[in-house]
Amino acid sequence: MAQNGSHPVWWKDAVIYQVYPRSFADSNGDGIGDLPGIIDHLPYLEKLGVDALWISPCFQSPQGDAGYDISDYRKIDPLFGTVDDYETLIRDAHEHGLRIIADMVPNHTSDQHVWFKEAMASEPGSTSRARYIFRDGKGEQGNEPPNNWKSVFGGSAWTREAERQDGKSRQWYLHLFDSCQPDLNWDNPEVRTEFESVLRFWLDRGVDGFRIDVAHGLIKEKGLPPCTERATMVGEDDDKTPSDAPMWDRDGVHEIYRSWHRLLASYPGDRMLVAEAWVKPLSRLARYVRPDEMQQTFNFDYLLCRWNADKYRKIITDSLKAMHEVGATTAWVMSNHDSVRHASRLGLKDAGARPQGIDAAHEQPDEALGLRRARAVIFMTLGLPGSVTLYQGEELGLPDHTTLDRKYRQDPAFFRTDGEEIGRDGCRIPMPWSDKGPSLGFNDTGELWLPQPAQYKNYAVSVEEKDPDSTLALYRALLAARKKHGLGTGALHWAEPRDHVVEFLNSGIRVVLNCGDKPISLPDGKILLSSLPMEEPGQLPANAAVWMTETTD
Ligand code: GLC
Ligand code: CA
């Protein structure tokens, strides 16, 4: 087991389960999941066999971007509960052997944050405005935005303030995301001091770590030079580096993470930071997890990888190498609240592609094929050394809602692109806990902030709990075996490469994934777990995977 001094470091091989609170479980029937809902389901999560929960933001927020627009970092939004509930969650989770990772959003606040309200009410050039990024517009009347930067969600990254009462010129403020998410000015020491204090506030309450939202965005290039492309966060799997974009991955971000590293190190219990950094290439990503910075950074190259054995092998090899060079482990991930669920992506013709949402007008994924591949790919993911982050519902094999009507859409990206981008609602549908009831056990009232598709009934926890061949049963078995054999802290050894096959050894377990559409022969050994019933001895069907032990006994 990984050691820090004399004790094991829990996060190195941890399996982290992402809870998206508004869609996890709703205790009071208002249609939105909440903290008591999470607390009620801790036994389920313990039984699943994960080590930690990453809780997406539930801080006070007008919910302009589903909570990623925070108006008070020290309060819990009444939609989700109270600070007391959060403390109960931490305490109860710890009793169930689960750590809690909070989601911290330092790149921007809500436009309803007291700082931004003060800034809007104050003069250009004031200290209140210096906490954000205000600029005069271009052109004689200042009618043009200060530069050509585009928001990640579409449209300009600048919004002009409304008519001023004092008749002074109206400035523009920067928002890399929605206009309700003004970017903070991290060159301002006051911003740094405030966030250190916010981190302490939650560390004092016992959180075990933080996921850092948009970790690559905090520092902008001096002078805000023009940018040729839309500030998209998603690189395709072509290794193109966006590091010349003046808003991403500036060297200055690292000093911030060094200071947070020191802050966390002053607390007991191996607290950790995990970066959401859409950064390429891997050598740049690795800079976020140098020994004095964060502990982990999500591996989005892995999430973005197509269903292709050569590509998987390359990304795994390159990732392990890049992280090893800085002494870090890799944090594998396949789905999250910003991406079409992988069970759906793997059922597309371009299998594994990451569209910006799917609706009825788009190619519909092949649900059975997607599920079959999702059940197979988790053998590879959980077979790798390092840590793994699961997204709620993937343990059920949940697909996206791919036909959600436009009238239900809530993602700001949908509105800012005039519907050109469908957005992320399809992967944020409330969880099906039961095959009975109007909201499939999400609550008792049937209220739902987003409707569930009909087929979610078939994936309900109540159904899968009864079925020994369900995806849930498979995840439980894999997680238990991963722990038992110490795969998370093991080392990977490749087998001789074969077409369409990913095959490696880790801690006495042989992982074989068949990405092809024909059966392949398996080496000798005993099959420990398989993604499908094995029809012919010694043969691994198409789109399937096994874990084997090396011995034949
Ligand atoms: C991150 C979050 C995403 C959010 C954005 C702006 O990418 O994961 O959900 O919309 O940051 O905070
Ligand atoms: Ca609720």
From TrEMBL:
SUPFAM superfamilies: (Trans)glycosidases. InterPro entries: GH (IPR017853), GH13_cat_dom (IPR006047), O16G_dom_2 (IPR045857). Residues 18-428 form the Glycosyl hydrolase family 13 catalytic domain. The keyword Electron transport does not apply. One of its GO terms (molecular function) is hydrolase activity. Keywords: Hydrolase. It comes from the Bacteria. It holds the Pfam family Alpha-amylase. Belongs to the glycosyl hydrolase 13 family. This is Glycoside hydrolase family 13 protein. It comes from Asaia lannensis NBRC 102526. The lineage of its organism: Bacteria, Pseudomonadati, Pseudomonadota, Alphaproteobacteria, Acetobacterales.
